[in-house]
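re: that chain from earlier
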Amino acid sequence: MNSNLIWILVAFVVYMAMMICIGARYMKRTSNSEDYFLGGRGLSGWVAALSAQASDMSGWLLMGLPGAVYAFGTGQAWIAIGLFIGTVCNWIFISSRLRRYTIRANNSLTLPEYFENRFHDKKRVLLTISSVVIVIFFLVYTASALAAGGKLFHAVIGIDYKVALTIGAVVILAYTFMGGFMAVCVTDFIQGMLMLVGLLLVPILAYAVVTGDGSLVDTLNASGVAGGSESYLSLWQNGGEPYRAIDIISQLAWGLGYCGMPHILTRFMAVKSEKELNKSKGIAIIWVALSLTFAILIGIIGRAYLYPTILGSEGADSAENVFINMITRLFTEHYALPFIAGIFLCGILAAIMSTADSQLLVTASSVSEDIYKGVINKNADDKKVLRVSRITVVVVAVIAYIIALNPDNSIMGLVSNAWAGFGAAFGPLVLLSLFWKRTNMPGAVAGIVSGGAVVMIWDYLPVVSEAGKHVTLATSTGIYSLLVGFFVSLICIVVVSLATKAPDEEILKEFADVADKSVEL
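^ sequence. v structure.
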């Protein structure tokens, strides 16, 4: 083992030990379910902002997006543009209203519980359906994060993918199991800062090396980018081919997913005051703008910096490892600072961990608070709920680990499917429940079921045959399932709500209280 690798390993060990210590510290402060799931609604503005964005972006930001840009060009930035628009709208229009409504709706701790209390669902139909949706799609989402962790350790250290996957899963499981929401948010804050520093510094240093050796454009052309550098650097080209309008719309549609993401929405619910929430908005928007821009630059500059190595070609690493390869080469060959390389590689691990821990926690809250206490054992005390939560964290992590065992799974593909599922099932209902007083329980049920079902059918059911091969609607049309599912769900909520009984006076009064900011909640 060479000295560079030893220093990188030291950085990893120090970082992971620090995350576990944070979990142990907050385990002592977790005394009830509100502490475990929402941290007692005590998040500061900085922690809420960076925790929400770090848990949002995941390994996709540092592996999936740069890898797509590296392989196909700047045209892949349309996803980033859609996500930025979605982030801004989510913080400006959803965050404060959702926080107020969850307090007014009987101090709801989880998204399914909010739906139940918002629509006075005494039969707990909404609670059950939404909890099942969370478990299904978070299994896929958590698997994507664990797979990213396995690929990171495999690429950096060279150990077997399955061993690498196991190491990452155990660390994430440890601090989520122990500390709950506050441990997750504090670690996410640290991880968000680390991600941002790595995103800003690495492409700048790599660009200095590339331009010191020649022209960026000339090197891109030499690397064999499809259509030449002009096409590669164009927003209107994708892999050397002109973008279709439907492709651009589908990529922008990623932004629709934000208002349905349980692990992001719970951060809004947990902020301790309106003042802190307003502070969070500016911090989060600036963070995501910088992060997405520099993630795109990593893909472009990495193509030139790593040349003559061409990632994705036979015998080379996956294109999704472009950032890993840039960091390793930059700080071991050009600057001889292997410990710093390890710290920045921990930034990628941070992106992965910050999403996986949040997903595990939200899934645990759905099973324990919503299904166990809400349906199975309504008289369960906090100790039993906490115990079920921690058992759920272990079970979900194990199942996600099994899904992630296949090293050929694409991080981008897994994230895409889970993002679409949540965005279509929950997004339209969150929007209408906050802003349209006529929304009722039958409409809410119709929206969740139709949105989730459309995504499952669109992405997974082989219904179209091309040259004797069965493909899905997503493959044959090129339309992102979230785009279809979101609007089907939206239409179903409106149509069913108007066709059935209007909400009663008590529900309308709660809606009016939330809308009236002079009413203190």
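The chain has a mean pLDDT of 83.
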